[in-house]
Amino acid sequence: MALVTEEVAAQLKGEFAQLANPVRLAVFSQALADPESEQVRRLVEELAALDPRLSVESYNFVLDKEKVEALGITRIPAIAIMGAEKDYGIRMYGLPSGYEFGTLVEAILDVSRADSGLSEETRAGLKELARPVHLQVFSTPT
Amino acid sequence: MSSVPKTVVGETVEFVGAGPESMLLKHVQQAAAPDGSLIV
Protein backbone atom coordinates (compact mmCIF):
# COMPACT_ATOMS: atom_id res chain seq x y z
CA MET A 1 0.00 0.00 0.00
CA ALA A 2 1.35 3.38 -1.00
CA LEU A 3 2.20 5.90 1.71
CA VAL A 4 1.31 8.81 -0.57
CA THR A 5 -2.37 8.74 -1.47
CA GLU A 6 -3.53 9.52 -5.00
CA GLU A 7 -4.97 12.83 -3.80
CA VAL A 8 -1.71 13.90 -2.14
CA ALA A 9 0.29 12.64 -5.12
CA ALA A 10 -1.76 14.88 -7.41
CA GLN A 11 -1.08 17.89 -5.15
CA LEU A 12 2.61 17.07 -5.03
CA LYS A 13 2.84 16.83 -8.80
CA GLY A 14 1.47 20.35 -8.89
CA GLU A 15 4.12 21.50 -6.41
CA PHE A 16 6.91 19.72 -8.26
CA ALA A 17 5.84 21.40 -11.49
CA GLN A 18 7.74 24.36 -9.99
CA LEU A 19 11.04 22.45 -9.99
CA ALA A 20 13.63 24.56 -11.76
CA ASN A 21 16.43 21.98 -11.79
CA PRO A 22 16.90 18.30 -10.91
CA VAL A 23 17.14 17.36 -7.24
CA ARG A 24 18.85 14.30 -5.79
CA LEU A 25 17.46 12.69 -2.65
CA ALA A 26 19.66 10.28 -0.70
CA VAL A 27 17.79 8.36 1.98
CA PHE A 28 19.46 6.35 4.72
CA SER A 29 17.64 3.64 6.64
CA GLN A 30 18.34 0.37 8.39
CA ALA A 31 15.56 -2.17 8.55
CA LEU A 32 16.93 -4.30 11.37
CA ALA A 33 17.88 -1.57 13.83
CA ASP A 34 15.10 0.84 12.95
CA PRO A 35 12.16 -0.66 11.03
CA GLU A 36 10.39 2.73 10.98
CA SER A 37 13.27 4.18 8.98
CA GLU A 38 12.10 1.96 6.13
CA GLN A 39 8.92 4.04 6.00
CA VAL A 40 11.02 7.09 5.26
CA ARG A 41 12.83 5.24 2.48
CA ARG A 42 9.50 4.22 0.96
CA LEU A 43 8.12 7.73 1.30
CA VAL A 44 11.12 9.32 -0.43
CA GLU A 45 11.06 6.72 -3.20
CA GLU A 46 7.36 7.43 -3.77
CA LEU A 47 8.06 11.19 -3.86
CA ALA A 48 10.85 10.76 -6.38
CA ALA A 49 8.57 8.74 -8.62
CA LEU A 50 6.25 11.73 -9.00
CA ASP A 51 8.56 13.82 -11.17
CA PRO A 52 11.40 12.83 -13.52
CA ARG A 53 13.53 15.69 -12.19
CA LEU A 54 13.66 13.98 -8.81
CA SER A 55 16.02 11.06 -8.27
CA VAL A 56 16.53 8.91 -5.21
CA GLU A 57 19.46 6.93 -3.89
CA SER A 58 18.66 4.52 -1.07
CA TYR A 59 21.40 3.49 1.34
CA ASN A 60 21.77 1.19 4.31
CA PHE A 61 23.15 3.12 7.29
CA VAL A 62 25.30 0.17 8.39
CA LEU A 63 26.43 -1.32 5.08
CA ASP A 64 26.98 1.85 3.06
CA LYS A 65 29.52 3.44 5.42
CA GLU A 66 31.41 5.18 2.65
CA LYS A 67 28.31 7.11 1.59
CA VAL A 68 27.31 7.71 5.22
CA GLU A 69 30.67 9.36 5.88
CA ALA A 70 30.77 11.23 2.59
CA LEU A 71 27.44 12.91 3.29
CA GLY A 72 28.03 13.33 7.03
CA ILE A 73 24.99 11.30 8.08
CA THR A 74 24.93 10.85 11.85
CA ARG A 75 21.67 9.04 12.55
CA ILE A 76 18.67 7.46 10.84
CA PRO A 77 16.28 7.88 9.23
CA ALA A 78 18.01 10.59 7.23
CA ILE A 79 17.36 12.39 3.96
CA ALA A 80 20.02 14.41 2.14
CA ILE A 81 18.49 16.92 -0.28
CA MET A 82 21.01 17.86 -2.95
CA GLY A 83 21.19 19.64 -6.25
CA ALA A 84 22.34 17.81 -9.35
CA GLU A 85 25.76 19.43 -9.14
CA LYS A 86 25.92 20.82 -5.61
CA ASP A 87 25.28 19.58 -2.08
CA TYR A 88 24.04 22.48 0.06
CA GLY A 89 24.38 20.43 3.24
CA ILE A 90 20.66 20.10 3.88
CA ARG A 91 19.82 17.02 5.96
CA MET A 92 16.48 15.99 7.45
CA TYR A 93 16.43 13.46 10.26
CA GLY A 94 13.40 11.55 11.46
CA LEU A 95 10.05 10.88 9.85
CA PRO A 96 8.93 13.89 7.76
CA SER A 97 5.27 13.70 8.73
CA GLY A 98 2.76 16.42 9.55
CA TYR A 99 4.15 19.93 9.07
CA GLU A 100 7.58 18.46 8.43
CA PHE A 101 6.33 16.86 5.24
CA GLY A 102 5.72 20.37 3.96
CA THR A 103 9.20 21.31 5.12
CA LEU A 104 10.65 18.47 3.04
CA VAL A 105 8.73 19.58 -0.07
CA GLU A 106 9.85 23.20 0.46
CA ALA A 107 13.46 22.09 0.88
CA ILE A 108 13.25 20.17 -2.39
CA LEU A 109 11.90 23.25 -4.18
CA ASP A 110 14.53 25.53 -2.59
CA VAL A 111 17.36 23.22 -3.66
CA SER A 112 15.89 23.04 -7.15
CA ARG A 113 15.91 26.85 -7.36
CA ALA A 114 19.41 26.98 -5.87
CA ASP A 115 18.05 29.84 -3.81
CA SER A 116 17.58 29.92 -0.06
CA GLY A 117 15.37 32.98 -0.21
CA LEU A 118 17.66 34.84 2.19
CA SER A 119 18.01 38.60 1.85
CA GLU A 120 21.07 40.21 0.30
CA GLU A 121 21.97 41.63 3.72
CA THR A 122 21.97 38.16 5.28
CA ARG A 123 23.96 36.68 2.40
CA ALA A 124 26.56 39.41 2.78
CA GLY A 125 26.79 38.74 6.52
CA LEU A 126 27.19 35.00 6.00
CA LYS A 127 30.00 35.52 3.49
CA GLU A 128 32.01 37.17 6.25
CA LEU A 129 31.86 34.21 8.67
CA ALA A 130 35.26 33.21 9.95
CA ARG A 131 34.51 29.48 10.08
CA PRO A 132 31.84 26.89 9.14
CA VAL A 133 28.75 26.80 11.38
CA HIS A 134 26.55 23.76 11.95
CA LEU A 135 22.82 24.66 12.10
CA GLN A 136 20.27 22.29 13.63
CA VAL A 137 16.51 22.90 13.94
CA PHE A 138 14.50 20.59 16.19
CA SER A 139 10.76 20.22 15.67
CA THR A 140 7.92 17.85 16.43
CA PRO A 141 6.15 15.71 13.83
CA THR A 142 2.77 17.38 14.28
CA MET B 1 14.75 19.82 25.28
CA SER B 2 11.51 21.32 26.56
CA SER B 3 10.01 23.18 23.63
CA VAL B 4 10.19 23.46 19.85
CA PRO B 5 11.09 24.66 17.35
CA LYS B 6 14.54 24.88 18.85
CA THR B 7 17.51 26.02 16.82
CA VAL B 8 21.07 25.14 17.77
CA VAL B 9 23.77 27.12 16.00
CA GLY B 10 27.29 25.76 16.05
CA GLU B 11 26.67 23.73 19.24
CA THR B 12 27.08 26.85 21.39
CA VAL B 13 24.18 29.18 20.58
CA GLU B 14 20.56 28.11 20.90
CA PHE B 15 17.11 29.68 20.91
CA VAL B 16 13.49 28.59 20.93
CA GLY B 17 10.72 29.77 18.61
CA ALA B 18 10.65 31.70 15.38
CA GLY B 19 12.32 35.03 14.81
CA PRO B 20 13.34 37.46 12.11
CA GLU B 21 16.12 36.59 9.67
CA SER B 22 18.32 39.26 11.19
CA MET B 23 18.16 37.50 14.58
CA LEU B 24 19.30 34.20 13.06
CA LEU B 25 22.16 35.96 11.28
CA LYS B 26 23.25 37.51 14.57
CA HIS B 27 23.27 34.10 16.26
CA VAL B 28 25.20 32.51 13.39
CA GLN B 29 27.77 35.31 13.47
CA GLN B 30 28.16 34.85 17.20
CA ALA B 31 28.63 31.08 16.82
CA ALA B 32 31.29 31.67 14.18
CA ALA B 33 33.16 34.12 16.37
CA PRO B 34 36.17 32.75 18.25
CA ASP B 35 34.58 33.63 21.60
CA GLY B 36 31.02 32.43 20.76
CA SER B 37 29.17 31.80 24.01
CA LEU B 38 25.96 30.02 25.02
CA ILE B 39 22.71 31.94 24.65
CA VAL B 40 19.43 30.37 25.80
Overall description:
The complex is a heterodimer of chains A (142) and B (40). Chain A is α+β, with helices and mostly antiparallel strands and 142 residues long. Chain A has a single domain (6-127), classed as Glutaredoxin (3-Layer(aba) Sandwich), CATH 3.40.30.10. Helix content of chain A is 37%, strand content 20%. Chain A has a four-stranded mixed beta sheet with strand order 2-1-3-4. The longest helix of chain A is centred in the C-terminal third of the chain and has 15 residues, at 99-113. Chain A starts with 5 loop residues before the first helix and ends with a strand. The mean pLDDT of chain A is 93. Chain B has 40 residues and is of the alpha+beta class. Chain B has one helix at residues 21-32, and strands spanning 6-9, 13-16. In chain B, strands 1-2 form a two-stranded antiparallel ribbon. The N and C termini of chain B lie close together (12 Å). The model of chain B has no long low-confidence stretch (mean pLDDT 81).
Strand order of the biggest β-sheet of chain A: 2-1-3-4
Overall geometric form of chain B: flat
| Rg calculated over all Cα atoms of chain A | 16 Å
**How many strands appear in the DSSP assignment of chain A?**
5
On the 0 to 100 scale, the average pLDDT of chain A is: 93
The succession of helices and strands of chain B, N to C, reads EEH
Helix content class of chain B? 25-40%
> What fraction of residues of chain A sit in β-strands?
15-25%
Oligomer: heterodimer
Instruction: Give a count of the beta strands of chain B, DSSP E runs of length 2 or more.
Output: 2
Quote the CATH topology of chain A: Glutaredoxin
CATH superfamily of chain A: Glutaredoxin
CATH class of chain A: Alpha Beta
